[in-house]
TrEMBL record:
InterPro entries in UniProt: DUF1033
The organism of origin for this protein: Streptococcus suivaginalis
Name listed for the protein in its UniProt record: DUF1033 family protein
Length: 119
């Protein structure tokens, strides 16, 4: 099973900082990798049309942003950028773990989180 997750928050998706799950705005689940990748690419294209800035890590972690979308963080005492992000994750039900998909030779990146952290 595969998930495409959309996030909106003040860090890029590849950091997976504590509490990153609170920034999830939607997630779509797919049984087939090709369907998940097709949806992921479609959403990347859509975000690319809307936001001028983009950065990608691995094949399935992408952040999009507008330089004007910032807010003042009292705790940090600085202005922080907000990002719209897309992630493609694989869910392996027997072990309830998630892994980043790395396309190419069907290898999986070692980046595992417990299912219960993805609310």
């Amino acid at each position: 099973m595969y998930q495409v997750i959309k996030m909106y928050g003040d860090f890029e998706p590849w950091w997976f900082v504590d509490g990153w799950e609170k920034d999830i705005v939607s997630q779509e689940t797919f049984d087939d990798l090709q369907d998940a990748e097709r949806y992921f690419r479609k959403e990347c294209d859509r975000f690319s049309e809307k936001y001028a800035k983009t950065k990608q890590k691995e094949d399935h972690l992408v952040a999009f942003w507008d330089e004007e979308d910032r807010y003042w963080c009292e705790e940090c005492d600085e202005e922080l950028q907000r990002y719209h992000s897309l992630l493609l994750l694989e869910v392996e039900e027997p072990h309830l773990k998630k892994e980043l998909i790395h396309s190419g030779e069907s290898c999986l990146r070692i980046c595992r989180m417990k299912q219960d952290k993805l609310a």
